[in-house]
Structures are given as C-alpha cells and as structure tokens.
Amino acid sequence: MSLEVEHMMGRGKASSPKAEVVAIDDAISRDSAHFEFRADHRSRWASRAIIGLVGIGITLLAWQTVSMWVFEVKGVVYPSPTDTVLRLADLMSGTTLYDHTITEHLLSSLARWGTGYLLAAVTGIVIGMLMGASATVNGIGMTPLTVLQLIPGLAWIPIALLLFGLGETSTVFMIYMTVLPAVAISTASGIREAPPVYRRAASILGTKKPALFFRVLLPAASLQMLNGLRMGLANGWRVLIAAEMVVGVGLGLGYVLVQARWSLDFEAAFVSILVICGIGLFIEKILFTVAERRLRDRMGLGAE
C-alpha cells in the first residue's frame, strides 16, 4: 500500500469516514495502474530480448552451417563461431596479435572514432541550430549538406590522403565528414518541423525568441537530433574500419583485418569482425536505446 494511503488512514478525524474510503480507493487504483504499467513494460522488454536472442541464435546457426559446408565441399577451413570465440578468449587473455593485444587494437579504434564523432556531433548540432533558427541559413546550408550526405564514406579516402597523408588525422577527417551531414540535417529538420502549436502557445504566453528557441523548439527537436546522432554513429563506425584498412598506422581493428588477409589468418579476421559487430550493437542497441527511452519518458511520449 502506498504512503499516500497510509497517510490518509492516519489522519483520524480530519475527514469523514466516507471521504477517507473514497480517497483510499482512489490511491489503491493509482497504485494498481502503476504496477500494471511496470509489469507491462517489463513484459515488452523481455519479449524484445527473447526475439533478439532468437535472431542471434539464427545468425550463429547459419554461420556454423556455412562453416561446415565450406569445409565439406571445398576442403577449406572456414572459422566457426566456436573457433572464433575461443581465439577471442585467447587474445583477451593477453596474447598479442600483430605486435599488440586485441584490447589495444580496440581502444585505438575507439579513440579515432570517438574523436571524429564528437567533433562532428558538436559541429553538426551547432550548424543545425543555426539552420533551424533562420530560413535563410537553412536555404544556404541544406543543399551542400545534402550533397555531403550523398558522398560514400570511402570516397573521402583520396581527399584525406591529399590533405593529411597517412595517419590518424586522415581517419578522423573521414569519420568527421561522414557523421557531420546526418547530425546537422536532423537537427535543422527537427527544429523547423516542430509542431506550430508550440510556437502559438509560446507567443500567447509572451515568450521571447531566445527562450522560444532554447526552451521550446530545441527540446521538441531532441528526438530527431538523437536519430541523427544514431545515424552518424553507424556511418562513422563503418568508415572507421575502412579508413584503418587503407590509411591506418599499424594499430586498430581495421588494421587487423588487413594483416589477417595478407597472412591468411582467417580466425583473426573473424575475431576482428566479431568485435566490430559487438561494439556497434552495444552502442546502437543499448546506449542509444536507453537514451531514447529516457528522452521519450521525459517528453511524456512513452515507449514505442
């Protein structure tokens, strides 16, 4: 029973018995509705988790089937899920892979991706805010950003090499140019597509333009901004691996893929692919999903 009910029961003669019964009944009804909502939310979460695990199981089964088929038909050892996981466990214990541990390769890739992604996210949000606040700026900036968004991430390789040569800066530049358009366009679109009723309500209340923008329009665009950041994450993570394969400097998951190809160490290649997928899924399905759910709750939209 809630504290509200206990408080009402302890008020004694402050109200009539009939009023107390009605108030207690209302409080119990609210508690029941709250518990039903939480139970329903947990049930939906459990269902999604089970469906996700089924999908992973089907993927692993298909992988194992292909591994067995390739070995039987072509006589080539195709690393199975078990082989890959065992090799990953060995590498996680400290065994080096191309002069570095798998953890060092991973941290190097994350550092490059994080630098490019954060720079692009900050720049993209600022540009998107300017475009959202001004129709003129939006008209000037939307076409160039759309063009940038249409350029595949790998197409930035020759430009990066010409500007910065081989090394870290080229990789960060490619990630930056791939993430920036998605974030800027989503931010601008979210602000400009905010429901007109928000503007009218703020105008009636006498809200000034700066307050209208930062306290009404920008929060209304937050979900679309988050979608842009999520899209930028996927684009940036993909181009990171490609950049490391071409302009890397001897450290990173993409570098592992290249070296595994030349040394025919297919287990190492599969380990790198597995880690790439695992990190991407963790950021996309866990971090961004939690952030979106909390944002929806804060905006009173509820979970999808």
Count every helix, treating DSSP H or I runs of 4 or more residues as helices: 12
Radius of gyration, taken over Cα atoms and rounded to an integer in Å:
27 Å
User: What count of structural domains?
Assistant: 2
For the biggest sheet, the summary is: none
Q: What coarse outline follows from CA principal-axis ratios?
A: globular
CATH topology of the largest domain: MetI-like fold
CATH superfamily of the largest domain: MetI-like
Distance, first to last CA: 30 Å
Give a verbal description of the structure.
The protein is mainly α. The protein folds into 2 domains: 72 residues; 219 residues, MetI-like (MetI-like fold, Orthogonal Bundle), CATH 1.10.3720. Helices cover 82% and strands 0% of the residues. The longest helix is centred in the first third of the chain and has 58 residues. The chain is globular and about 75 Å long. The N terminus is likely disordered.
Concise summary:
By secondary structure, the chain is mostly helical. Helices cover 82% and strands 0% of the residues. The protein is globular.
Detail the topology: elements first, then pairings:
Blueprint: H1 3-9, H2 17-74, H3 81-92, H4 102-133, H5 135-150, H6 157-164, H7 168-192, H8 196-204, H9 209-220, H10 222-247, H11 253-263, H12 266-299
Helix pairs in contact: 1-2, 3-12, 4-5, 4-7, 4-10, 4-11, 5-7, 6-7, 7-10, 10-11, 10-12, 11-12
Name the descriptors:
single chain, 304 residues, MetI-like fold, 2 domains, globular, disordered N terminus
